[in-house]
Amino acid sequence: MLKKIIEFSINNRFLVIVATLLIVGWGIFSIKNIPLDAIPDLSDVQVIIYTEYPGQAPQVVEDQITYPIATVMLSVSGAKVVRGYSFFGFSFVYVIFEDGTDMYWARSRVLEYLNYVAGKLPPGVTPSLGPDATGVGWVYEYALVDKTGKHDLSELRSLQDWFLRYELQTVPGVSEVASIGGFVKQYQVEVDPNRLLTYNIPLQKVKHAIQRSNNDVGGRVVEMAETEFMVRGLGYIKGIEDLENIVVDVDEKGTPVLLRDIAYIHTGPELRRGLAELDGEGEVVGGIVVMRYGENALKVIEAVKERLEELKKGLPEGVEIVPVYDRSKLIHR
After folding, report:
1. What is the DSSP letter of 271?
2. Predicted model pTM
3. Do 128 and 51 touch, CB atoms closer than 8 A?
4. Which of 75, 105, 108, 290 has CB 3.0 to 4.6 Å from 176, enough for a Cys bridge?
5. Over the stretch 157-194, which tens digit does the pLDDT of each residue have?
């Protein structure tokens, strides 16, 4: 057999040279384009269903959210394991599929079955799918630091949530950019129970008054001098003063009872259950870049770095982006 191969190669030198060049070229192309990563992805094909149910105890979340979703997901085609976890105010359901199942086919099947369970959930509760990533998709992390002290943690968190996060999510191969640390700014209405009792106003009425007043309404058009003018009612809340002037009720004399008459209104941080600290020097705001399933980790990281360099020009003076975790260094080793 070996003698015949040698004889064929000698008699067909041109074909052997062409085949050799093709193999070498294919090898070079494969080396340049092969997905590189330092951590092998051996995780299962899974779809995560996340559901918020604010203010509810784990037992209530288990009975009204986790259990109905998990029981429906048991009948999803290709699913081998369904796991449910109930916490204070939110629920996770993990649907794990057979090996070899296409990730996006699995996600579409889960979405299909979520439509069936929607009617069994409490009003206003909407489940959502987690990112199309795996357990090893965490490829890059950075921190926002202001050493000048001009910007507090709430301002840094706003920069992360409303500027950096959306820009980084447009990078090819990025599935999610998760924010961590800092304070999420919100309007807070601290109702005085004694004043509610004085005006005989139930707490639910205060909630409905705020919801009703934070809304834009549309009308029709008014034609004047052969020109149409759109009629709109502008009612979105833009500041504390708008909240203070919301009419909640009227007293016995017909005088409007404003929100500021029964509550203290201010801006403050949302309740948090964790923080981010850098090098033991104090709290910071961070961002975690999660890679999409099946992408080239090295290319995604390089693209994220390039985008961050572009975004540095739009940051306020004194704010810096500090890399915290970069898997590309491990890949190059």
Report:
1. P
2. 0.79
3. yes
4. 290
5. 999 999 999 999 999 999 999 999 999 989 999 999 99
